[in-house]
Write a structure and sequence with these properties.
Layout lengths: L1 H8 L5 H14 L3 H18 L2 H11 L12 E7 L3 E3 L5 E3 L4 H11 L3 E7 L12 H11 L7 E4 L5 H14 L6 E6 H14 L3 E6 L17 H25 L1
Parallel strand pairs: 1-4, 1-6, 4-5, 6-7
Antiparallel strand pairs: 2-3
Length: 251
């Protein structure tokens, strides 16, 4: 029920929706003063959330710093969170903009920093197809010449909470010992680390796929940007997700 509700209400997390509502009120209002007020509110909201300077500063504070791995230490496994691939209209798997998660996990194994890759991810769509991310990623790891003996797959989870609980069962079944590197996008790491540790999995954050907050300051950050709007939607979702998780665990 929680999974369905979260999917249904996710559309409320998009700042552009609030801009649209404010402008819509301004357009249809018959009161000139009210029309002007909501028009101004809409434009201010649009500029705030399309401002790259603000999202870059927020991301810089929110994202967890890159992991400083111990020199010479070989970790037993990296837990690779899904969300970096999906299926196309013909049911064929494809990478998306978060593919750096996959790349970093492969590099960790290839450079000898980890022994195994644990993939966790099923299909998080409200109306899922037959595509299962974990199963598809197994073939991609094979293409990258990662031995099957070094790969563990969990392909039933639909969200981060299930990623953690299903991965714990998988690790216990195969008698894997931590700590484990947790590989996911930087914007998602803060929430993921909390969930995995709360589940009892000893993880070391290994963030990647930075989408904001990593570049040097530039004046064009103050120019309205559609990209900034998209990034705010991502971070707002993470902030609310972490808050809900924190409150539910306190209750």
């Amino acid at each position: 029920m929680f999974f369905i509700l979260s999917k249904v209400l996710s559309f409320l997390l998009y700042p552009l929706l609030y801009v649209f509502v404010l402008l819509l009120i301004a357009v249809f209002s018959k009161n000139a003063q009210k029309k002007r007020k909501y028009l101004i509110y809409g434009l201010i909201t649009l500029y705030v959330f399309s401002n790259s300077f603000l999202i870059n500063r927020f991301a810089g504070a929110w994202d967890i710093a890159p992991a400083k791995l111990e020199n010479g230490k070989v970790y037993n496994a990296a837990i690779l969170l899904g969300g970096f691939s999906s299926d196309d209209s013909e049911g064929q798997g494809m990478f998306n903009t978060a593919a750096d998660r996959f790349i970093q996990a492969v590099l960790l194994q290839k450079t000898g920093r980890i022994k195994n890759i644990v993939v966790t991810g099923g299909n998080g769509n409200l109306n899922p197809s037959a595509f299962r991310e974990g199963a598809w990623v197994r073939y991609k790891l094979k293409d990258a010449q990662i031995p099957d003996s070094c790969v563990l797959i969990e392909d039933q989870s639909r969200n981060t909470l299930e990623n953690a609980s299903f991965t714990k069962v998988l690790l216990q079944k195969h008698k894997q010992q931590g700590p484990y590197l947790l590989v996911t996008s930087a914007f998602h790491m803060r929430r993921s680390v909390r969930i995995f540790r709360k589940t009892g999995i000893d993880v070391v954050p290994y963030p990647c796929n930075y989408i904001a907050g990593r570049g040097a300051f530039a004046l064009d950050e103050f120019v309205p940007s559609a990209d900034a709007l998209s990034k705010w939607s991502t971070y707002i979702k993470e902030v609310i997700g972490l808050s809900v998780n924190y409150i539910s665990n306190k209750g």
